[in-house]
Amino acid sequence: MALTDVAIRTAKPSEKARKLTDEKGLYLLIRPNGGKLWRMNYRFDGKQQTLAIGTYPDTGLALAREKRDAARKLLAQEIDPCAQRKQEKLERKIDQQNTFEATGREWMKIKGKEWSDTYARKTKACLERHAFPVIGSKPMKDITAPELLSMLRAIEKRGTVDMAHRIQQHCGAIFRFAMSIGTVGADPTPALHGALSTVKTEHYAALTDPKDYAELLRSIDNYRGEVTTKVAMQLLAYTFQRTKEIRFAEWSQFDLDGALWRIPAEVMKMREAHIVPLSKQVIAILQELKTLTGNGSLLFPSTTNRSRPISENTVTYALARMGFKGRMTGHGFRSVASTILNEQGYRHDVIERQLAHSEQNQVRAAYNRAEYLPERKKMMQDWASYLDKLKTGAEVIPLVGTAA
Predict the structure, then answer these.
(1) Which residue among 85, 111, 141, 331 is the active-site one?
(2) Of 234, 205, 229, 232, the residue nearest 217 (C-alpha)
(3) Quick check: pTM over 0.85?
C-alpha cells in the first residue's frame, strides 16, 4: 500500500529501525532516534543494491518518488544508479579542483618556464587583479562566453582597453591549456572576437626615411658622450637586436673569428637562443671596444658598477641629447631595418629570423635555424655596407645582392 503524507508525519520510532514501504522499491527507514530516511532497493547485475534518496522532511514524499522514478529510468538504460551517483560526485569534486584560478596558476607554472621574469610577473599580476577575483573560483567548464565578456567589458569601462584585450588573450591560453589536459572540451574566447573596442597601437618612433636615418648614423659616429653608449647605438643600428640583448651582451657570447654572436635563451624575449652574424664593420667596432671593456664580462658595463650593464634608458637619453627625442627609440632601429630590408626584396622569413621573432610552427622554426644562417650572414654584411654608404652621403641606392 502506498504511503501518505499523514502516515509519514505521524510515524513514531521504535526500539529497532523499521520500514514504511511505498511503491516500486521505495521505502522510509525510521531509526530509533527518530530520523526518517528515504531508501530504494533494486537489483543490478543480479545483486541487491540500496540507493539513498534523501532525508525526511527535507525530501518530501513527492520528491522522493521523483528521485525513485529517475533511478528506475537509469536502470531501464542498464545504468547502476549508485555508480552513477558516485561518478557525478567525483565529477563535482574534479570541477571544484579545476577552477579557473587553479588552472590558470598551473598554466603559468608550466608556460612560465619559457617566459622572461618581467613577462611572468606582469601576467601573474594582471590575472590576480582582474580575472581571479571575478571568475577564479568557478569551474572551468561552467564559464561561458557571455560571462567572460561581462568581466572584460568591466575592465574596458575602467579605461584600460589594452588590459581587457590582454586578459582575453590570457583566458584563451588558459582554456586551450585546459583542453590539452582534458579539463574542458572547448575554448569560449573565440566567440568574443570583435566584442571589445579596438586597441590603438602606439608604434615606436623610427626614422624609416633613409636620408633621415643617415643623419642619425652620422650623429652616432660623432657622439661625444660615453664610448660604450656610442658603441651600443652602433650595434643597435648594425645588428638591429633588442636593447636588452645589447645591454646584457657578454664577451663570452662573441666568436669574433667566426663572426658570430650567440645570445643565450635566458636573455632573449622569446626564451629561444639566437645567432647573430657579425659584419666586418661590427667586428672592427668590437675589437676596439674590447680594449676598453674586454677585461670584464660585459661589453657595456655601468660606469658606477662594472658588474651591472648600462641602464635601459641610456640609449634613450643619448638619442634625446643628439636631437632625436620623439623621432627615434632604441626599438626603432629594428623597425628601420625591417622596413628597408623588406622594401629591398630580402626574403621575409630571413628577416623575421634575424629579428628573432617567434615562429609558431616548431618544425618550420627548426628549419629556419638550420637553413637561414648563410642567407642571414650575407644580408647582415649587405646591411652594414649599406649603412656605411648612407653615412658618407652616398645616393640612396638598393642594397647589394638583394633577392630578385
Answers:
(1) 331
(2) 234
(3) no
pLDDT of the residue at 94: 65
* 130 is a catalytic site residue: no
- Annotated active-site residue 353? The verdict is no
Grid cell locating 243? 636593447
Is the backbone peptide bond immediately before 277 cis, with ω within 30 degrees of 0?
no
Beta strands in 226-380 (DSSP E): 254-255, 260-263, 274-277
Answer yes or no: 334 catalytic. yes
In DSSP notation, 369-392 reads: HHHSHHHHHHHHHHHHHHHHHHHT
Reply yes or no on whether 16 is catalytic: no
- Residue 39 phi/psi, 5° resolution? -135, 155
Identified catalytic residue from 18, 85, 124, 269: 269
b/e map 219-236, b = 16+ CB within 10 Å? bbeebeeeebbbbbbbbb
**pLDDT at 368 (0 to 100):** 46
pLDDT at 402 > cutoff 80: no
| Count, residues in the chain | 404
Q: For 123, how many CA atoms within 13 A lie in the half-sphere containing its CB?
A: 23
| Residues linked to residue 52 through DSSP beta bridges, in sequence order | 39
pLDDT at 205: 58
For residue 176, indicate whether it is catalytic.
no
Ranking 97-101, 172-176, 305-309, 315-319 by mean pLDDT, the lowest is: 97-101
Of 29-43, 336-350, 383-397, the one with minimum mean pLDDT is 383-397
Active-site annotation holder among 93, 280, 325, 357 = 357
Catalogue the long-range contacts made by 118-123 (C-beta closer than 8 Å, 24 or more residues apart). 119/269, 123/170
Q: What is the pLDDT of residues 195-226, one digit of tens each?
A: 887 655 444 556 767 888 889 999 999 999 99
Enumerate domains of the chain plus CATH numbers: 5-92 (3.30.160.390), 100-192 (1.10.150.130), 210-391 (1.10.443.10)
| Beta-carbon contacts of residue 99 (< 8 Å; ≥ 6 apart) | 136, 137, 138, 139, 140
Backbone torsion region of residue 39, taken as left when φ is above 0, otherwise alpha when ψ lies between -120 and 50, otherwise beta = beta
